[in-house]
Amino acid sequence: MAAIPPFHLAFPVRDIEETRTFYQDLLGCEIGRSTEKWIDFNFFGHQLSAHVKPEELALVNANQVDGKNVPVRHFGVVLDWEGWHELADRLKNHQVKFIIEPHIRFKGEVGEQATLFFLDPSGNALEFKAFEDEKQTFSR
Fold first, then answer.
1. By CB atoms within 10 Å of each CB, which of 41, 45, 46, 96 scores lowest?
2. How far apart are CA 114 and CA 104, in angstroms?
3. Domains and CATH numbers, the chain
4. What InterPro entries does this protein map onto (predicted)?
5. Are 119 and 126 in contact (CB under 8 A)?
């Protein structure tokens, strides 16, 4: 896949310290600038800005996708195949509670992918996925 510019995403969190621990210690994100009200993370080469704003946290609503309840509001990264499996193993070893367990979605179809969903400490839904054939990333 061609190199793309990093995206920036700002999102609400409940507590700065639990957010710091989760994104830095569990996901391995480096910390950028921060104050007591916000913190920036290097999220797999992209800039996440977590802002303490608990009143902005939403309930997790879902749509059916391939027989699973997929959270409508979510973000994440498309990893390479090996990196996705390493992350899935790390999350399992840390006993992360999955919304959707690691599995292969659309098996044998266009867009076949490895995917998993879980919540951060503030209830923000994250999805990590991978394609064995990265040309399938935007296939229809």
1. 45
2. 4
3. 8-55 (3.10.180.10), 62-136 (3.10.180.10)
4. Glyas_Bleomycin-R_OHBP_Dase, Glyas_Fos-R_dOase_dom, VOC_core
5. yes
